[in-house]
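job 3f2a | input accepted
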Amino acid sequence: MEIKEVMDEIKKIAIIGGTGREGFGLALRWAKAGKSILIGSRSEEKAQAAAEKINTQLGQALAVGAPNALAAREGDLVLLSIPYQGHELILPAIRESVQGKIVVEVTVPLDPNDPTQVKMPEIGSVAEETQAFLGSKTPVVGAFHTISSASLKKLDQKPDGDVLVFSDHSQAKETVIQLAELIGFRALDCGPLRTGRTIERLPALLVWLNKRYQKKDISLHFTGL
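job 3f2a | predicted structure (225 res):
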């Protein structure tokens, strides 16, 4: 199947963790670009409140709130933007619902006691761990780790920073690159899934820089391209 055909089939994007800052910001941007959004949360009430906030801000009914399992089942593509500590509960709950779909892994294994540090999984990265759990028929793509949630919400401004995209599935990776470009980002093909062993460490550096320079929207941009 061609990339364009895959993109055309992705009408509904499910964002597990869409009530959090990064997930909500991405949901807002994709809704503004015309995609239907399913906000997933363990709390259906919080999911519905986040969806209503998006609909009110955009003046259109583009987002719906739902429990995680339902959002994952109804979405054509599923994005995970959840605390790493929640993986062991959420992944088993959505495993069957995401089979054969592209799963975008945004989760960063920040140390809950010190977010300027990471605690990487034994397998190497969160994305690799998710891929191993879901199985080879469900392509996992890592992306959006170094994007500022504060800048995502500023709809009057072009989003800043480069989206670093990595996966062992080339077609799925290209689809996510196009989804990033749809909301105004430059997206870079950063290679296979094991690249996450480097990329997933970068948000800890950004946390430090934001704290040191009293900012909220520092991100990464590569020059020379």
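job 3f2a | The chain has ten helices and ten strands.
job 3f2a | closed
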